[in-house]
Write a structure and sequence with these properties.
The complex is a heterodimer of chains A (532) and B (327). Chain A is α+β, with helices and mostly antiparallel strands and 532 residues long. Helix content of chain A is 29%, strand content 21%. In chain A, strands 1, 8, 9, 10, 11, 12, 13, 14, 15, 16 and 17 form an eleven-stranded mixed sheet that branches. Chain A has a four-stranded antiparallel sheet with strand order 4-5-7-6, covered by helices on one side. In chain A, α10 runs antiparallel to α12 (350-359) and α16 (462-473) runs antiparallel to α17 (477-493). Chain A is globular, with a radius of gyration of 24 Å. Chain B has twelve helices and two strands; from the N terminus they run αααααααββααααα. The longest helix of chain B is centred in the C-terminal third of the chain and has 39 residues, at 230-268. The radius of gyration of chain B is 24 Å and the shape is globular. A two-stranded antiparallel sheet of chain B has the order 1-2. By secondary structure, chain B is an all-alpha fold. The chains are: A alpha+beta (532), B mainly alpha (327).
Chain lengths: 532, 327
């Protein structure tokens, strides 16, 4: 209670002060459809929350505006053995409270990422141990070779050990323990270019440019005010009326309207998120189909028939307003491991689909239900409906069960035993590397090795499993790419999934500002500037 | 009166427990909270551990028992999403909703009643007819549409008023108010009118109908015959006698105003309890949903009780039940 009071008071005072001095400073006001879950850097491993916090906290490495890994709090790193990497830490870095950054902070943050309330345990668990060599040198030891270690360290945010311990935040904030370690939910002390001035969850978060930051960044913004605005219509209105300078996402249907207004524009670009349809290929009888006693989706000819029945260009034109990128691969061009050679989508050929279905013994098609979220991806429900009408043309009667994301995920994911026959899902690999997709979506489901967690239809191919393991430990780039290519070819030939497109990013921005729209949809303050 | 009160209080408790039971059994249809609390890379074991820690694996009666016994002492647990006690969240959000609802209720009463009286007295006048036509709009258009129309007209086209939020707020103890700053007052105008519109037109139409009826009665004719001034007849005699059904409706509508506030708050991004509730549904934040529903039913039950007491006060002839008069 007393913490909340303090926050309320400080935010009230801060907003009055800010209001008074706004004229002399460059202030940016922006909105997203929701809020970051909390300010705890290890609280939630999710794109918006991490992207939001990457302006305040930093990792040993960072992602630049094109998602390339660049040095962050480490100046360089060197693989000294298959199971160890030595990081040289950046000297002279200060936290927002003035404390100096050193090796102890890195070790502390890594340990914290493994604590009970943390959602970064998967990343933290890649490390076996960290040895402090001196104040600014550490050796990170792993069980086996970890070629992706440097890029994973971009998302393990480094906290100040002394500050965290002083505020009882040695462990990540936890939903069960009463406020004992809740300080980090609404307070932050990182090394990033912006500091948190005040925060009221779901209402307002105020940032100011940090005087302590080690790096020179291109931005000329001094203050940033973030307010979540849930309703798309309200967000658009607030942007047009000039109350907000940047809002996202903008519904693709509103692009025309923004373009017709002066002073604002809709910035769109390809997101690294691939949208695809998945099929149950493991059950002996589908849960939601009129075919009893066998599973038509186990038959490669049926999967091929489905692939050739989908007209991706029509989906792009009619539903995505021309802004999606039809794809043949399960990863986007921004993702490490992408090879354009395999990216040609399956050819649209309904006649071939019909023939394949006849060969497979379903000349009149069959019925199947597809599970679909209706508030998770861009126009998700409409995509499912379009797919259903395309399937109808070749005789497959697809029933669309569209639900809000909480219900949808509660139904189709592992905790409910993958209760689905067909589904629409979108995926951006958090590591921006193909291995995450090979492991999570394309390996056989295996609870012990934690593989295939999101392989809801359990596509299972022994060779792909082997290749996945090899890709995971191979450090030689060209050998690694050869493994990836082989896996991609099998996946494509076997029609493991029906990839649809990379969905568009859609930001509304005032003409007074220039921004960088990064393909993971993170809004990086380092690249925003006031231009007028 | 005392036995009546005790009886009513006992009934209220039964109602509250029933609401809790129904609400609680609905929660399992809202979806799975775990997926909103972890990222996509979180392993199955960790998800299961979190589920166990939150007690979501317990059988329904045990979960319900824990909820009821904790709620009885005012402990609604910790929000899954915000990770802070639900009671703190509600106290933090309550001022925004209460301010909005009270202003709306005042608007609808102090504009609705005079409008009703006016339209009853000047039945054929041009202004009365326009009021009546406008009131149809207020009754028939859904709140979110009115809100968005207001935003586009006053926020985007005319740019007189802010399109969202509460403006600058001033903290007085735990209470926050927007009434002390210019931007706070400006921010309050559109949402409060949006929220008030339906109740305002309802009250106006009700008062008008009641007034028309009362104005035809003998004692009004007699009052006129006695040569009383027109205002004294209309307001002193006629209006007073129309107020009984109006008070009932206002009382019940006050609860509805808070319930309707959910939609208005979402449209205007008003940081109140309704907004909190909507977000909690989306993220399956069960402790917040439960607390909010309990609170709203508590308010409804309280208002009903109050209205019953007011009845007896406004019209002493009404005895709510036979023996209670002497109690």
């Amino acid at each position: 209670m007393s913490i909340m009071k303090k926050i309320l008071t400080t935010s009230a005072i801060a907003s009055i002060i800010l209001g008074a001095s706004a004229a002399s400073a460059n202030t940016l006001k922006f909105a997203f459809q929701g809020d970051a879950q909390s300010l705890d850097p290890h609280g939630l491993n999710e794109t918006f929350t991490l992207g939001f916090l990457s302006n305040v906290y930093e990792g040993l490495t960072m992602l630049d505006k094109d998602l390339k890994v660049i040095p962050g709090l480490a100046t360089s790193w060197e693989v000294t053995s298959p199971t160890s990497i030595v990081f040289k830490l950046r000297p002279g870095v200060k936290f927002h409270n003035g404390n100096t950054f050193n090796a102890d902070d890195v070790i502390f943050s890594w340990k914290r990422s493994l604590s009970e309330g943390s959602d970064q345990k998967v990343r933290g668990a890649m490390v076996k141990n960290i040895v402090k060599i001196d104040e600014l040198t550490i050796e990170v030891q792993t069980e086996g070779p970890q070629p992706l270690m440097p890029s994973e360290w971009a998302w393990i945010f480094i906290m100040d050990k002394e500050w965290s311990e002083e505020h009882g935040a040695g462990n990540a904030a936890n939903v069960k323990e009463e406020n004992a370690n809740g300080y980090t939910l609404n307070h932050a002390n990182g090394t990033g270019p912006f500091e948190i001035v005040s925060r009221q969850p779901d209402v307002k978060t105020v940032f100011k440019r940090s005087a302590n930051h080690w790096n020179t960044i291109g931005s000329n913004i001094t203050d940033i005010i973030f307010t979540p605005v849930k309703q798309a219509a309200t967000r658009t209105a607030a942007l047009i009326s000039g109350e907000l300078d940047m809002v996202y996402p903008i519904p693709v249907q509103d692009w025309k309207r923004l373009d017709s207004e002066s002073g604002v524009s809709a910035i769109r670009g390809p997101e690294a998120r691939t949208i695809f349809l998945g099929m149950d290929q493991s059950r002996d009888e589908l849960l939601y189909s009129n075919i009893k006693g066998k599973n038509p989706l186990k038959d490669l000819r049926v999967r091929k028939a489905m692939a050739h029945a989908l007209n991706l260009d029509l989906i792009k034109k009619k539903i995505m307003r021309g802004a999606s990128t039809p794809t043949g691969l399960m990863i986007a061009p921004q993702v490490n491991g992408f090879n354009a050679q395999y990216n040609t989508p399956y050819k649209y050929d309904p006649a071939m689909s019909k023939q394949l279905l006849t060969e497979a013994g379903y000349p009149d098609g069959f019925e199947i239900t597809i599970d679909c979220p209706n508030n998770r991806y861009v126009n998700d429900e409409k995509i499912c409906q379009a797919a259903a009408s395309m399937m109808a043309k070749v005789g497959i009667k697809m029933k669309v069960l569209a639900q809000p994301k909480s219900k949808y995920f509660g139904k189709v994911l592992a905790q409910n035993n993958y209760d689905t026959s067909m589904y629409l899902l979108g995926w951006t690999p958090g590591s921006m590397d193909v291995h995450n997709v090979l492991l999570g979506l394309l390996s056989c489901q295996n609870k012990e090795s934690k593989a295939g967690l999101f392989n809801l239809g359990n596509f299972c191919n022994q060779r792909v499993d082997e290749l996945q393991k090899m890709v995971g430990v191979e450090t030689d780039p060209s050998k690694r790419q050869a493994f990836i290519d082989e896996a991609m070819k099998i996946i494509k030939d076997q029609v493991a999934y029906l990839p649809l497109h990379q969905q568009p990013l859609s930001w509304g921005v005032s003409d007074k500002f220039s921004v960088n729209q990064r393909a993971d949809n993170a809004f990086d303050f380092r690249y925003v500037s006031k231009t007028k | 009166m005392f036995s009546f009160l005790v009886k009513r209080l006992l009934q209220s408790i039964v109602v509250l427990i029933a609401v809790a039971l129904i609400a609680f059994s609905l929660f399992k249809f809202v979806g799975d909270p775990i997926n909103n609390m972890v990222g996509q890379d979180t392993t199955l074991d960790e998800r299961e551990a979190l589920r166990e820690r939150l007690g979501l694996n317990d059988p329904f009666p045990i979960q319900f028992y824990h909820f009821i016994t904790d709620a009885a002492v005012g402990d609604f647990g910790i929000s899954y999403r915000h990770k802070i006690p639900v009671s703190d969240l509600i106290t933090e959000r309550a001022p925004a909703t209460l301010e909005l609802s009270i202003i709306s209720a005042l608007l609808s009463v102090f504009i609705g009643i005079p409008m009703g009286v006016y339209t009853a007295i000047h039945r054929k006048g041009f202004i009365s007819r326009s009021f009546m036509t406008l009131s149809l709009v207020g009754i028939s258009l859904p709140t979110f549409l009115i809100g968005i129309l207001f935003i586009f007209l006053f926020g985007v086209i005319l740019r007189w008023l802010p399109t969202f939020g509460r403006g600058e707020v001033v903290a007085i103890g735990w209470w926050t108010t927007g009434l002390l700053t210019w931007s706070g007052i400006k921010s309050l105008i559109l949402p409060s009118i949006t929220l008030a519109l339906f109740q305002m037109t309802l009250i106006m139409r009700l008062v008008r109908t009641e007034m028309l009826e009362v104005l035809c009665t003998d004692y009004i004719k007699f009052a006129r015959a006695r040569g009383l001034r027109e205002n004294a007849v209309n307001f002193g005699h006629a209006l007073k006698n129309t107020l009984i059904p109006v008070i009932t409706i206002i009382g019940l509508q006050l609860g509805l105003v808070m319930a309707f506030a959910i939609i208005t708050e979402t449209v205007f991004q008003w940081p109140g309890m309704g907004m909190l509730f909507i977000q909690s549904i989306e993220e399956v934040d069960v402790p917040v949903m439960a607390a909010y529903l309990m609170m709203i039913s508590l308010i409804f039950v309280g208002i009903n009780l109050l209205v019953d007491i007011l009845y007896a006060y406004v019209d002493p002839r009404l005895t709510i039940d036979g023996g209670s008069k002497h109690g």
